[in-house]
Fold this sequence. Notes:
The protein has two helices and two strands. With 85 residues, the protein is mostly helical. It has a domain at 9-50. It has a two-stranded antiparallel ribbon with strand order 1-2. The longest helix has 24 residues, at 61-84. It is rod-shaped, with a radius of gyration of 27 Å.
Amino acid sequence: MIKGVNRRVIEITGTDSEYFEKAVLYVKADKRDISPALLEDEAREYIGRLSPAKPPVPVPLALKLCAAAISAVAVTLLIYLLISL
């Protein structure tokens, strides 16, 4: 329940979240005189910190296998060079 009628509200519609389309923030009574642009910037920053992190992009199996093969070749070449000296 919201008490009183002098509430200042910031509504963020572009949350960039997979789960939420809108966020509503109530401005503290002692901060009502701050400019709307600054309040919106602060609200977007706050919402950005609350949003769940995007899952990491999975690395394809072929890329993992190529990296492993290159590493094996490099180690083999290094051992060969050390032995031949």
